[in-house]
Amino acid sequence: MNEIPRGDPALHVPPPPGTPMPTPVTPPAPAEPVTPVTPEPNLPEPTEPPTRPPDPGPAPPTEPAPGAPQRPRDRKPWEERPEAPAEVPAARLAAQSRRDFLLFTAGVAATAVGAWWLLPDRTKARLLQGAPNDRLDRLAARVGLGAASRERVLDRALTFDDDVAEALFSKDRAVRTYSRSQVTPLRNNYNGRTPGPEYLPAWNLEVSGLASGRAERLTLAQLTSRFPFHEQVTRLVCVEGWSAVAWWGGLRFADFLSAFPPAAGARWAAMHSGVNLDGAGRPDPYYVSIDLATARHPQTLLATHLGGRPLEPAHGAPLRLLAPMKLGLKNIKAITRIAYTTDEPGDYWNERGYSKYDGL
């Protein structure tokens, strides 16, 4: 039996009447390929969307490792440069060590020779007596290190120090003053024996180098009656290291200069004490040099009183210099003569190795 192809209209035979029509069967659509599903792990469900962490900003500069060389731009100007190891041959180190030792030895020897050369003769004689000291002095003299050259070097050093002190001096700067309740005992510090009172009845003050061309002789009564009396409580400082606060009275040196003006061109006052004695009681005139700028200072006095009473011989009766801006060795006691000069006059302690200016 031949199979009739379905769906050909020419060969289709309708079914008899009353026969139910079959429901057409729609062929199923071809199935799509199914992709296998991989099961996901059990993750917690987020409750809120994750927040972004804050921006930390630029990363801080990292410190170099210990021992690592720093770049020049990272090093502060005041910081030390890091140590860098260097290899040096042993022969070179030995030569450098010998050289350093020789230089150190030469420096120590030169310092010792210079210190010995600058010592006073009496000190050297005390430290090294007899022939060794003489041989060293002769050897020093042969190389130009004699006593005369030593004095020139010391004088230049003192002169330089004086020049600096004088340049820094201010005639308008006052030293500190105190109350009378702060007064302390003032010791008798004569460099020799204290003179007795026998010179007081005949005492007078000689003044020379005046603009008038004359020399004046003034008694204590003339001084005290002619000039205003001023008082001050200031500190007197000794070169030996002690000091004392004292209540002084007298006439201002500036008033004295106005009444007895120096000659034109004068810059110094040479002040002498003819009654000064040495330790054995022999006459030993004392003298100091005072620049006129210091003499005109408002706190510089020609003092006649101490502690509210006339001066005693132990403290320079009847007239002494009181310049509190100078060391005590400048504050000459028992003045007998004042001479104005154009050139700097001699000074007792400067001739014995001390400064001429002696300012505070």
Q: What name does the CATH topology of one domain carry?
A: Sulfite Oxidase, Chain A, domain 2
Q: What shape does the CA trace take?
A: extended
| Major sheet details | 5 strands, mixed
- Strand ordering within the main sheet: 2-1-10-5-6
Instruction: Give the % helix.
Output: 10-25%
SSE pattern = HHHHEEHEEHEEHEEEE
Average pLDDT taken over every residue: 82
CATH architecture of one domain: Alpha-Beta Complex
Number of strands: 10
The CATH class of one domain is identified as Alpha Beta
CATH H-tier superfamily of one domain = Oxidoreductase, molybdopterin-binding domain
> Which secondary-structure class do the elements indicate?
alpha+beta
Tally of separate helices: 7
Residue runs with pLDDT of under 50 for 5 or more positions: 1-12
Gyration radius, in Å = 54 Å
- As a percent range, the share of strand residues is 5-15%
What quaternary form is this?
single chain
What does this 3D model show about the protein?
It is a single chain. With 360 residues, the chain is α+β, with helices and mostly antiparallel strands. 24% of the residues lie in helices and 15% in strands. Among the domains are: 107-168, no CATH class; 180-352, Alpha-Beta Complex (Sulfite Oxidase, Chain A, domain 2). A hairpin with a 5-residue loop joins strand 3 (230-237) and strand 4 (243-252). The chain is extended. Mean pLDDT is 82; it is low at 1-12.
